[in-house]
Amino acid sequence: MSKPKPTRHAPAEVDAYIAAQEPEFRGTLEQLREAIKRAAPQCTERVSYKIPIFRLRKDFVAISAAKKHIGFHTMSKAIPAAMKAELKAVGIWTSGSTFHIKPGVDLPMEQIEKALNARLAELTD
After folding, report:
1. Is 35 within the bounds of a domain?
2. Predicted model pTM
3. What digits encode the pLDDT tens for the residues 52-108?
4. Is the residue at 29 inside a domain?
5. Which of these, 21, 22, 25, 79, lies nearest to 50 by C-alpha position?
6. How many separate domains does the chain show?
7. What is the rounded distance in angstroms from the CA atom of residue 121 to the CA atom of residue 119?
8. Checking CA distances to 100, which of 21, 106, 109, 125 falls within 20 to 30 Å?
9. Does residue 50 sit within a domain?
10. 7-to-39, 52, 75, 112, 115 alpha-carbon distances in Å
11. Other C-beta atoms lying within 10 Å of the C-beta of residue 16
């Protein structure tokens, strides 16, 4: 059996992923998805490795729902490291390349947009 192409555009897979999550997670996941599409309207989206992944020329960012938090995967260790104090101040903790966001809190869009712009800059370098 052949593997699905990473360039495929399958928004219905992402719709299904979000719909399958607990209600308190869905709104934040949708907000993240909308912010990603605003930052990179040409990106494709699909579910891979059991989470929604957004792709430009290569994997751009991903989102996920865990048991007690929402993951915003920047695919870059440098971005969370550079923003660690700023993220901590708004209630987001990090590990590796991932922001961990508690469900039901206001999403700090300024920090999310800053991370998306930094990731776009990495991909165009």
Report:
1. yes
2. 0.93
3. 999 998 999 999 999 999 999 999 999 999 999 999 999 999 999 999 999 888 899
4. yes
5. 21
6. 1
7. 5
8. 125
9. yes
10. 18, 13, 17, 24, 23
11. 12
